[in-house]
Amino acid sequence: MERIVRGDIYGLKVTVMGLGLHGGGISSARFFALRGADVTVTDLQTEERLESSLKELEGIPIRYVLGKHEEEDFLKADLIIKNPAVPRSSPILKLASTVETDVSIFLRLNREPVIAVTGSKGKSTVSSAIHHVLKRIYPQARLGGNITVSPLTFFKEPFKRESSHYSESTSIREEAVSPTGSPGTTCRPTVLELSSWQLGDLAGKGVLKPYIAIITNILPDHQNRYPSMEEYIEDKKNIYREQDAKCATICNYDDRYGEIFAGETRARVYYFSYNPLPSGLEGGWLNEKGGIFRKRDDRGVDQIFPILPERLLLPGEHNRLNLLCAGIALAIFGVDNNTILEGLADFSGLKHRLEFVTEKNGVRFYNDSAATIPDSVVNAIKSFNSPLILITGGTDKNLRFDVLKEVAHIPKEIVLLEGSGTEKIILLLESIDRNYSGPFSSIEEAVIFAFKKAKKGDVVILSPGCASFEMFLNEFDRGEKFKEAVIGLT
Q: Domain containing 452 — which CATH number?
């Protein structure tokens, strides 16, 4: 790894395992190939399946092995870059001498302050809200990680010296800048959204020491990938394991694991909660005017001030909590109170997360395709006061759907999509004598049916509570297909 840290990449034999469709494999291949490394990309998917990713790498000297893996590409490589979707238990990885990821390479080279965000749900909204406000003060603030932007894209691409030889005009490694630099400085804080898989890949490498670490919540997820809930949580803990007393860890006081994380981290602990925190704890909570933040100053005196505006663009009580968490992180980072309040007030949210699509004949359509666990469906249903038609179901992640019982009576119509997870939903609905329609074999059929059932003033929302892989490439593809179907309604 010393060669990479020195920026000495030319001639390095690099195998990128898993090109994927979300940008990590693409950016890794591009990063190393444009700096003169001998790059091989290997993926079990076919050329046809990876067509969009391959197009982004056209014209770059890369060798491809698709539809299979060859042992030689792992035995003879100086470095393996693993896609997070590839399990660490993959037998062929045992042949490799050094295994890294796009995130670990970025962290080895980065010298700017990092705010790292994880959690079962809410991490994308929290990460994006923090970045949205930071850009008001630090125009070069960056957002990447699990949010489908590889942090390797933050490094400038080298100039092309000749047809097959690329070189850096300056060192890849960045200079350190204080995280509390004055507004308008060249500070480039990086907000990293990190999944449990990405955090697991960073375990033991000693590269992740975020200035601020955030764990939004812990809910059952990815149990099709993890042998137990405990192993899933252990991966999440890697977000704070390298922190020290100069860092901050933000925990969810209402989450059963929040106090466990707070007790383990060596960093200064802040909490966020729906309700007022006990005296002596630093952090924030919601109130009728938005939310407030309590922090001890250098004299040990509590300072209390508003941190969340009363009016937000995002629907849902859970999003108020997400933005409260973001506000706390921004305050710790040194952003002034007015900038936080103004920035959070005009944050409009993200695609595929309670995303407003359009209104047709008085019926409003929302895309919540990123809701891949049952708890997210509960939050989505509770976010609206209007009569609601729910489109749900998909691929099983080995999760329980019992939480849906508390809200199953609310939608006027439940429309199901086909999938292995849908079979569990059907059993649950039938156990409580709740009627449903479907399951439908296409998103277009489900949307047309929902529209026929809807009346003026109704809300139709796609909130699957399941993975997407039986019918779609991923949850983003599912969301886009839903929006296309809605726009195409006549």
A: 3.90.190.20
